[in-house]
Give the backbone structure.
Amino acid sequence: MPKIDTIMTVAKVIFGDTKDLNWGRIVAVFYFTLEAIIRAIKYLSKEGLLKWIKDLVVQVTAFVVRHFSNWIASQGGWSSILENYGTSSTTFVTVLAMSAIVGIYIIYMSRTK
């Protein structure tokens, strides 16, 4: 299972040259995060997995918001992904999957409290 610090290093490498910022790079970070979560499911206990997913999603989301929220807003927000890539693209599916993971986690946590 990859360490969160390692995943964040990969995220920083993906955005190494922010002069060429585009939706593909932003989606690549979320896709990479999704792949890390899928692999982690095989190795972590239920308790460890949920904490790891929460920590990872919080850090990746904070990274994207901190560094790229102005760019995302200037492009028309998250909904402009559909305009750029269409509804059938892998990009949309990846963003939808990440949203579902976060949603499931929030529902799970609200029921276990």
User: Anything to note?
Assistant: The mean pLDDT is 75.
